[in-house]
What we know:
Blueprint: H1 3-10, E1 18-23, E2 29-35, H2 38-43, H3 50-53, H4 56-64, E3 67-72, H5 76-90, H6 93-96, E4 105-110, E5 117-121, H7 122-128, E6 134-141, H8 144-157, H9 173-176, H10 190-204, H11 208-224, H12 228-242, H13 247-262, E7 265-274, E8 277-287, E9 290-291, E10 297-300, H14 309-321, E11 331-335, H15 338-350, E12 357-362, E13 368-372, H16 375-378, H17 382-409
Parallel strand pairs: 7-11, 11-12
Antiparallel strand pairs: 1-2, 1-3, 4-5, 4-6, 7-8, 8-9, 8-10, 12-13
Helix pairs in contact: 8-13, 11-12, 14-15
Amino acid sequence: MTLEQFKKKTKHMPDTPGVYFFLGKRKEVLYIGKAASLRDRVRSYFAPDIAEVRSPLIAQMVERASSLDWRKTDSVLEALLLEANLIKNYKPKFNTDAKDDKSWNYVVITKEDFPRVLLVRGRVLEKDFPLTMRAHTFGPFPHGLQLREALKIIRKIFPYRDMCKPQTGKPCFNAQIGLCPGVCAGTISKRDYRKIIRRIALLFAGKKDVLMKSLEKDMKLAAREEEFEEAQRLSRQIYALKHIQDVSLIKDEYRNEAQTIRAMRIEAYDMAHLGGMSNVGVMTVVEDSEAQKSEYRKFRIRSAKPGDDPGALREVLSRRLGHDDWPMPRLIVVDGSTAQMNAANATLKECGVHIPVVGVVKDEKHRPREIKGDQQFIKGRERDILLANAEAHRFAITYHRKRVRDRVRQ
Length: 410
């Protein structure tokens, strides 16, 4: 299928939420994604700078694709849930190659008298929640930030327990604001709470039709038995499911897309220590030639040995990549040459993330001498790379000095 044929097919795609598929020559599923607007989202894959905007892996996927398919959904929330179920079933090469299992997000419903509903990172799933502790596991979900927003929406419709202790006699904070059904206060029975959990499980399993029929049946039964308060509550849940307010998910999708396409986000990293003491690392951000100081971050080095700058860099990058709520950069700058670049690339590979890395090499007076790395990512961005690197060095020294002063005062 030629580029023109692809573009022609996107004209027939609906401007609605849903899930899209890139298919290979034998109709095998290469990649699955979700969108607030199927038409607009899929069109973005045919930008001339797709390798730079998304990743070389995605550009390779588009080249191999022979056709497109899609499924419409009633909301972005349902698209997000459907995407996770389809990725789990099909395991598309270009989804699973883009991230390793540790980078995914999962929703776990625990196996307890009053089950909890939890968001769990892949890297701790088996360790903290073995199969014997799980009643249901949903995922993998590629988008951690959007999954958190989805859980907020679902919790407003079906309040659930996440942290509170059952039947303490006192309502937790979430119970006071209507996000916990009173498990803590003992105002809901195990039987009624398990109904809520079953409804949540049906929604995550993509069985909205079954869920709706079940709710309507329960509502009619409650009305027949003159349990009007319960019937009204179920009626509200039915209405909420038919009119899901997922504006936050739509905003998040477009915000991330805008950041990816319009802003060239560069993150720079540097370490600082004195004889191996007060070992710290920092991250600075430059977007479109401007330092974004509100997005700078500090890290106290916990596990790397004193003086091991590549080890400290690996630790800092691993911790940074654990933050799904931070926008991903399109270029990473490290202070140093081969050792630092290798450390960064190895960490990115372990986390299943594909971001180019460049290194700023200094002379004996700590002045920039050379920028090492792939020239296609360096050319035309030298000024921004050096600005990010200089800011990282300044920020690291400032933070390190403060840590030393605090240590002396103690």
